[in-house]
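Thread: quick sanity check before group meeting

JM: Hey all, I'm pulling together slides for Thursday and realized we never actually wrote out the predicted structure for the chain we discussed last week. Dropping the sequence here so it's in one place. If anyone has concerns about the input, flag it before I start.
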Amino acid sequence: MKLIETLQDEHVLIDQVLGSFRAFVDGFIDGTADPDDGGRFAAFFTEFAGHFHHDREERVFLNALVTDAELPGDRGPVYAVLHEHAEMAAWLCEMLPILEQRPPSEDDRVRLRALATRYSHALWRHIDAENSVLYPEGVKRLRRSGVAELPDRPMSEAEAAARDGAAALLVRYPPVEDFALTRGDGCFMCRAHGETCDGLEAEWWTEIEWEEFYLG
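JM (edit): ok, ran it. Output follows.
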């Protein structure tokens, strides 16, 4: 599906900008980064990652899984994704006032580092879970339901400006990796597993899939 391919391409950029944001936060805290870049990162995650990327996931892809593939929206993968979108948006909102401080207080510096780490860890693992489980399994079930393609929409001016502004940020703040975070594919690597979702097999598998599994 073209929309899913596009969303996966967007994941690559979001993943990179997360690493760049972590580098910026280190510089913002020690005074070596341009404080105005905090607003540019905020615009990227709010406008491009949120208003554009997550919006299309929710209103188009997840909605199709519930309405066309008749998958549950009040539990399992769909609910987990919606819950994480809201959770991460709230953490981003908590960071915005701190990024506007000139200069930030010591308490603000500590708070920002903790929020940025939590936000980036959650979004990195969210991307891994969507790429490895939600997207391929969701597409499979939509196709079984006769849905071969999904609609898309163009970016607004604000969304496009936020995306385009990321190029300069990536140059100024080369992305860093957080080796404290273990990343990987599959349900067991998803932070929602065992919390808001019991895994693909428990939530989505049909009797036929279970029979095929046991028959090998």
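AS: nice. The chain has seven helices and no strands. The longest helix spans residues 106-144.
JM: adding both to the slides.
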